[in-house]
Amino acid sequence: MPLFWESFYLAGDDLMKQLVQKLVIEGQNSPIEQTLMQLGKNPVEILQPFLGTNVGVSFRNRRLRSDFNLQISVPIVSYYLELLKENKDDSILSYSDIFGTNPPTQTVLQHFRSSFGFDFTDLQWTYKRKLLPGLLKKPLIR
Description:
By secondary structure, this protein is mainly α.
């Protein structure tokens, strides 16, 4: 094992998980959390059952949670990283911008709507070129 690996504390999956959490699921950069707050809902009350622990969660809902991550969260973060790689300007992204030729299944979209009370396809995503490097650097430095 090369010695320089010792300076990295997080693997790619860990970085992806943090970006999913900070860009997709919660916080000021998440249109999901922002929309919940605009609707007067407590994001924690909605997000915890949808994305929390597996304790007491049916197999179907665990599967839908996994499908949400694979079909929605990872493609969003991947799209952001591609924009960063191409040095694109800041922009507002629609559902069709991100998922144009590879949309999530209707089952996942319906589960989102029933859990959150609004359509995922209505969300707009704000890409800020300067935001991602800051989110990426912090986990690597301890």
